[in-house]
Amino acid sequence: MIDYTAITAQSMAMAELKLDSPLQFIKGVGPRKAEVLASHGMTTVRDLLFYFPRGYLDRTTILPIKDLRVDEIATFIGKVRAHGQLYGGKRRRYEAILGDETGDIQLVFFDGAQYWKNFFKKNMILAATGRVSYYHGKQLIHPDLERLEDDSDKLIHSGRIIPVYPQTAELNQVGLSSKAIRYLTNLIFANLTEKLADFLPEEIRSQFDLMEIFPAIEKIHYPDDRQAIDFCRKRLAFDELLTFQYLVFRRKERKSKIRKEHNFEKPGKLTEKFYSSLPFELTSGQTEVISEIFSDLQSKQPMSRLLQGDVGCGKTVVAVVSAVYAAENKLQTAFMAPTEILAEQHFSNWQENLRNLGISAALVTSTTKDAEKKEIAAKCAEGSIRVLFGTHALIYDYIEFSRLGLAIIDEQHRFGVEQRSKLYAKGNNPDLLLMTATPIPRTLALTLYGDLEISTISTMPPGRKPIRTVQRESTSRDKVYEYVRDEVKKGGQAYIIYPLIERSDKMELRSVEESFKELAADVFSDCRTAIVHGRVKPATREKTLKQFKNGKIDILFATTVIEVGIDNPNASIMIIEHAERFGLSQLHQLRGRVGRGQKESIVVAIVYPTTSDISGKRLEYFVSTSDGFKISEADLDLRGPGEVFGTRQSGLPEFRIANIARDQKLIEMSSKLLSRLFDTKNKLSKDNDYINIKNHLEEISQTKEIHLTGG
Ligand code: ADP
Ligand code: MG
Known about the structure:
Blueprint: H1 30-39, H2 45-49, E1 55-57, E2 73-86, E3 93-100, E4 103-109, H3 113-119, E5 125-134, E6 138-141, E7 144-147, H4 152-157, E8 162-164, H5 169-173, H6 178-191, H7 202-207, H8 213-221, H9 226-256, H10 269-277, H11 284-298, E9 304-309, H12 315-328, E10 332-336, H13 340-356, E11 361-364, H14 370-382, E12 387-390, E13 404-409, H15 417-424, E14 431-436, H16 442-448, E15 453-457, E16 467-473, H17 477-489, E17 493-497, H18 512-520, E18 529-532, H19 538-549, E19 555-558, E20 571-577, H20 584-591, E21 601-607, H21 613-624, H22 628-639, H23 641-645, H24 647-650, H25 664-678, H26 688-701
Parallel strand pairs: 4-6, 9-14, 9-15, 10-12, 10-13, 11-12, 13-14, 16-21, 17-19, 17-20, 18-19, 20-21
Antiparallel strand pairs: 1-8, 2-3, 2-5, 3-4, 5-6, 5-7
Bound molecules: adenosine-5'-diphosphate (ADP) and magnesium ion.
């Protein structure tokens, strides 16, 4: 048992605490602090127990001040020897001197003098973390500071691990620093007269090698050693993922009870005719997913399927054949794409094929003229338009369908949950097909898209040549450009991609407008060049892209607007300027614009000096692998799912302790348990233990609903 009284010198005599005791009545809290705690989701003792440390201070992570090395990030503990405003030197600053038995160091703050003046007190004990620099001696500029109890440096040196709690400005304002929260958690553990009951029985815990809940909570706050933290984390993250996935499973179960009103007969002549009108043979991967989709369409339950496959594997034709099949069954299809370029391209590529089969198609985007929009809306509402292509414009209220049977969303991760749901709501439980070229690692798909079936195309159309990807320093830019010019002379076509449209004062980056002006007049003066980006008028953009596709333009200067949808098999060179600025999945998407024809393709990532380790790793991955699955897994690992999927957009909750990129094993474990709970055909699900777990999860999830896929 931990002797909590050893941690602070404070006497902790107080009334017995229960899990449901309000925090407000704990000594030292009071109404003002209680209010702020409540705004952070904490009103009872139980709530605070689930406010986990964001990190820990211990002997292994703390250095004596004399051992601090310049340029390294370090944590150390010291007493405030002196502090005050300094005016001499280059800039006005607030300084504090922190010292331990081995030496002193300066902490420097260039702003917030008033705040720091109030913050520092002589002899206060602080843990500081930051990068050590040198200016008339070693110093830390704007370090991370953590106030410690008077004797915690001794405790730490005796081997204790001190929790550091997540901080917000509001908490700090009312004096709820990490130290103050530490005081509260101490007090709670010392005076709590009941333990949290474990909803997982012993047998299941031992199956999954999980700790009991209460000790896990106790030790995540006050661990005996570092290893203990991992084991506690495992249990707490498991619970968090289980609770979250419960919602996904429940949603799937509810969806499975829905019956659609429309009906698909076996595929007939029209679908046959469409197949034979194609200029190519379908790949085995395409044929497989088509049969998966068709069998979903024929089922009584609405389809919710995610079609994934690397850039260029041929997802569009799969979507179009599904639309033809829907038309054959007198049903309408909405086909939504994230950019105008892409929507236009889908429409212009397929309009004729569809017309030849007597299927009328139309396109709506934000630039469609009002009169035309009205006409399309009217035809769509009466049902004479069978396939409606478009961008977000499709989800506006004026678009109505008479019999929407199939909703297709291309590059679905570019849309928010709400947008996907809105399209879905245009029909009466339509079948839903989502498509993405950013494949989701299997375990993550279980969490994010647990209520979807997944189809994967893992074959590429024949004749694709592998793309060579290389990385070059910015200093060899000129050579790279000469290479491009030489290739253009031999009939090649190239993309040059930039991170910005125009020059920005904030960032020292090359922009597409500036470089276009400069290079088109210089090294590319005898090449045919053009520029496209998000601010070029759609009509001009379309014209430029058409000319590029028809070989009338040699070099296309562009931003990432060309990331999706541009299809020019003769373009075999891509130069990416400032490759260090792009995300891994984005680089991979960009790369997908080349390698579409008979020629060997090359991508040159031009890299400018950067201090970020992450961008270095990103580029290493990019150059060394062309496998979209590996890329997206690495991206997830480097950036985290919040960044990759845009947490708010994806509808994914913020996890306190679980990390859906790193905790894939735990996700699998909790799905395994949930499959047993939800598998009503299995007698295990009738087991009392399982019923209890399900009841517990239902109880804590009653008011919650999860909606990640839009279907
Ligand atoms: P993505 O999966 O990235 O959306 P697309 O559907 O845009 O890929 O297809 C990429 C290119 O491959 C298009 O030009 C398309 O016509 C072509 N394509 C698709 N399927 C085949 C096939 N089976 N054989 C040959 N070319 C194909
Ligand atoms: Mg596509």
